[in-house]
Amino acid sequence: MRYVMVQIPNKPASTMPPAPRPVPTSADVARLAGVSRATVSYVLNNTSAVRISEPTRRRVREAARELGYVPHAAARTLRAGHSRMVLMPTLPVPAGPLYSRFVHDFQGAMSRLDYTVVQYGASGVGGDEAARAWAELRPVAVLVPGTGIGPEGVAILKRSGARAVVTLGPEAVEGAHAMLLDQADVGRGAAGHLHARGRRRIGVVVPEEPGMELFSAPRLAGAREALRGADATVTELPLAYTEEAADALAARWRGLGLDAVFGYNDEYAMLLLRALRDAGLRVPEDVAVIGADDLLLGRLLRPRLSTVRITLPLGRELASLVDRAVRNPAAAPESHALFSVAVVHRDSS
Amino acid sequence: MRYVMVQIPNKPASTMPPAPRPVPTSADVARLAGVSRATVSYVLNNTSAVRISEPTRRRVREAARELGYVPHAAARTLRAGHSRMVLMPTLPVPAGPLYSRFVHDFQGAMSRLDYTVVQYGASGVGGDEAARAWAELRPVAVLVPGTGIGPEGVAILKRSGARAVVTLGPEAVEGAHAMLLDQADVGRGAAGHLHARGRRRIGVVVPEEPGMELFSAPRLAGAREALRGADATVTELPLAYTEEAADALAARWRGLGLDAVFGYNDEYAMLLLRALRDAGLRVPEDVAVIGADDLLLGRLLRPRLSTVRITLPLGRELASLVDRAVRNPAAAPESHALFSVAVVHRDSS
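^ inputs. structure came back:
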């Protein structure tokens, strides 16, 4: 192994900063354009209810440009009572490929409907405390992944002017629209498949990285549930996402007496599969392996990785639900089960 | 291949929504608690400058809770003139694993410094237009990845009250702090390595997915630049991230007469490597392959994938720069080259 370091030289700081100037206000724009503040507001917010001549509109726009005046979204929201902002709290873990793609698509779809999606950084607070922090931004809609909100949180958001709250979780929450999405289904599907393939001593990988329990706990619970009453055992296998950890688990594999493993997702499954084979175990003869997410990379592996394919709601379907809910805030909450899981049987199980 | 569909039944919508209530204001809280609006504001914003008795504070808090009153971040910002919000525009493509991890770490580090990171959805606008949209949220600091801002955009943000603008791109922008990070270095490193390994006819994968040119164009340019004047050719290889596209490219590989390929990143490199081997080509004997990102999965591959390791700035280093800049907005812009690339030579090249 060889490392070639390419170092980029430090560039000097370019120039001194300009002397701080006061932030221009709409009053400054009004003064420069020789109009009232109300006129500035009408022009810059494109209000059509008031007749203002084109030359005046032009003068206001030019004055705003000259001063570098930008309307304040906050002030605008205060006046209008609602924004076009859709707030989404971020997950407590780095987004995986499936979720990144989903957020990207949802954002694009909302943007085409003239909303802006804002992902709010998890600040370590949860429950109603979190709902209160989101409410401070006065979003017109909130999309909450996971189990991060209860009925009181929904009520807090609605009282603060949110017209729609949509949850992406295992159960509907009172007052909110629900996209039902239960991680336990993934574990159920994987364990059910391994059992159907004749395996009886089944390991379930549980990532050790902090925050992952949001997904791993229900996946493990789903696997246990699927095998309850069946002639099979479920063994929890904590695993960090490193080659060393996978090698260590593979080294003590024969002592565990397992004949199958659900790898949590494709990435952990690929990591463990490689370590098991390096330790002399045959896949699937000695150990059947299944992942989840149906990543392209799992299909490239030999043996091809079996997986649980997870279909998240389409960005544009979810966007249209949010838009409908915003335009009709009094409508009864909708509950959709667009999330589905399907076992894809390949060569590793 | 076998698919087992696990379908989740639709649950009925739980209850009718509560009748819409007016959004409670601080005046409502003041009325219920029997105090002035100023007192409500002092208590709920934890102002210590004013002496207010503990029983009064408790009365205000209880009234706020009873009414479900949440202070309005916008109103607070209007009063205070600045927020604790750090805005980051999202990338125009789904975040890859490296970037997801970086955002997650940065967010955690800012959160420990009592800021909230908000990722602003790309809305299809760019340049000063985008800066104006971000400015409307009145962030205290803005972190711009890529080349999405110029000196005028920086000025717009500063005039709107942003105390710090930090860019994560190839060049410093006037008025902004810079974390220098040039994607061309990745291409330079990869092409330089392949040339040093004796390869002369080098293909460079360019992903066909929309938005990827933000990264792929400078990587290709860097590869070309590294080989300028050398006895080597660079061939652009458009490739979609599908097995079919990779197989099609592999099928016409011999006609291209290439002896090496820089796969854009590890994921495209792994996809192409598999297709090349399935088409009967030997790696690295017939074709040397190198990726970028140093994903764990590339290390698991046989032959082990050579790669360009990219080190992004640490979340906490960047967070401390942002915090320093916010607290001292008049300081001269800093320029840091924390981003570095290192070629990791394994078995595929």
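Chain A touches chain B through 108 residues (CB under 8 Å). The first helix of chain A runs from residue 26 to 33.
thumbs up if we can close this ticket
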